[in-house]
Design brief:
It contains 4 helices and 10 strands, in the order αβββββαββαβββα. It is of the alpha+beta class and about 170 residues long. It folds into 2 domains: about 90 residues, 2-Layer Sandwich (Gyrase A, domain 2); about 70 residues, Alpha-Beta Plaits, CATH 3.30.70.1520. The radius of gyration is 16 Å and the shape is globular.
């Protein structure tokens, strides 16, 4: 039976208003031009047929979809991008996904994150690569929650930082 990097930490995550999104499909897409529907603007994300697509670099996007969708999505994206310079790589095991909900989630993240998470500028549809404490993370602001994408080796550290922020 597969175990996530945060197996056994669900109670701790709940104290911080979070849950782990277990085993989402994550595809790294590189292309010289933004594929149709992919966000062309820096630090934004959009919902497309394939799932949620986060802009993570001038020619790089992260596609996030339901668990088990990697193989058909890779095939679909390869077909859509055929003829142009591109790559599509399954990176589903590369990041743990933590979803934080609640009105104080941005204040909690601000306790260890250097970017401005003021709700006047950090709104739904935004994403950014940044640090949370000493861990590199990718933040995604959604309509009613914030997702943190973090490498599995830093996941426990991030949960501990979230708990420290709750205790303040």
């Amino acid at each position: 039976m597969a175990r996530t990097a945060l197996a056994g930490r669900s109670a701790d995550l709940a104290l911080a208003g979070g849950v782990e999104i277990a085993f989402p499909t994550q595809l790294d897409v590189r292309a010289s031009d933004a594929p149709a529907g992919f966000p062309p603007q820096p630090n934004t994300w959009s919902l497309v047929r394939e799932g949620e697509v986060l802009w993570i670099g001038p020619d790089e996007w992260l596609v996030v979809a339901a668990p088990g969708e990697a193989e058909p999505l890779v095939a679909e994206l390869e077909s859509r991008l055929a003829g142009g310079h591109h790559s599509v790589v399954d990176v589903s095991s590369n990041r743990v996904v933590i979803e934080l909900a609640g009105a104080s989630r941005l204040e909690l993240l601000s306790s260890a994150c250097p970017i401005d998470l003021d709700p006047r500028s950090w709104t739904a549809g935004r994403c950014a690569q940044t640090l949370f404490g000493g861990a590199q993370v990718l933040l995604q602001e959604r309509a009613s929650d914030t997702r943190l994408f973090v490498r599995p080796s830093f996941a426990t550290y991030v949960v501990d930082l979230l708990l420290a922020g709750v205790e303040r």
